[in-house]
Amino acid sequence: MTAIVDFVNSILWGYVLVWGLLAVGVFFTFRLGFLQFVNFNEMIRAIRGSRESDANGISPFQALCTSLASRVGTGNLAGVAVALYLGGAGAIFWMWMVALVGMATGYAESTLAQLYKVRDVKGQYRGGPAVYIAKGLNAPWAAVIFAVCLIISFGLVFNAVQANSIADAMEGAFGVPKLGVGIAIAVCAGIVIFGGLRAIVRFAEFVVPFMAGAYVLLALGIMLFNITEVPGVLLMIVKSAFGLEEAAGGAAGSVTAAMLNGIKRGLFSNEAGMGSAPNIAATATPAPHHPSSQGLVQAFGVFIDTIVICTATAVMILLAGVVEPGSGVTGTQLTQLAMETHIGSAGGYFVAIAILFFAFTSIVANYTYAENAIIYLGAGNTLGISLLRVAVLGMVVWGGYEAVTTVFNAADASMGLMATINLIAIVLLSGTVVKLTKDYMGQRKAGEVPHFKSKDYPELDRKIDSSIWR
Prior knowledge:
Elements: H1 2-31, H2 35-38, H3 40-47, H4 60-71, H5 74-87, H6 90-115, E1 118-119, E2 125-126, H7 129-136, H8 140-174, H9 178-193, H10 196-225, H11 230-241, H12 255-270, H13 277-281, H14 291-320, H15 331-343, H16 346-376, H17 382-401, H18 404-428, H19 430-445
């Protein structure tokens, strides 16, 4: 299995996705007129006052919190540390680049998910890449492949990664056996997961703002305490990205190592282009009632994840000066070591608790994506959902004691397969994204509250559920 996973990764990450992700992000950035920069204020506007839901969908704010629950996980703490260890400080620069162009990609995929969403047997909105691939591209075979990849990666592999990070942190901070931690996480996750989608999004809405806020506030406090050194750290990140300060802060130190590790860990963290967040974006009732509004909300989620939270972790680690190439100290342990350098022994406990919250919310949010996929595949009955839940919780227990390298590599492979399918789909549907964006911004410019009118899109007749948009 290790040989197979390594081969798949060498193809996907060595040739396809490293350049494909950047290319698609740049493509949408230009085609949408630098939307993520020009209309950044509109992203804020789309989030404010977006707490209302209805009988069919969750609120835009709940959708944002749930997608952030998935995005803000081990990638923000352990993943950033891995990127620094393998790629040097310059890897963070490439994480920024992936996020900035990825905001446009995230906007496009979530806008499409909203447009093509459908109702399940209970009347709840459902959708995502599998639906817009099947309906928008008339390629149900590709949609099935995507849905299967989604279940494998988010329902199974990624949750093993999250559980591994929690177990690693708990063992390092409190000496708790990893297997015991895995079982405890599975029990707690089961309580939330078996409550269904509504219970999960209410949980995310309550926990995510608290956990992210507390982490960022502590990071800001550390930066203020070391304010004279922060400009130098930021400059080192930029210079190392172009090989101008090769030996600083990383093992490999080369431009290629910085780029590859920054892009991989950046995508793993913010998920832009992967086709994950659109699954929860599709379940929201947008405010304003237009597909683009939920796209804007999810684009802002990419910004929060990488530009805010990942940067906070990176700067704290680099300020501590604890990255030692060849030492073997990486991932969660490296982040804990950095925090202990700043605030003493309490730092290790804080990171362990932060990992617990970040990764646990990722587990329950990732499950919602897998549930969406299983429903698309037609196995959304009681038996199918129950089997999925048992499999998810089983992977949580397994991930608690499996080696971190193994689960990270498996996550890279499954994520790469998913992202490849989704990136091709959204590029082929980019014309629709452009038309929706012009429609939304045109109504805003005219002083109107944007509202989607299906009659203005005759080319989408019988491809979308027009009753949803009345």
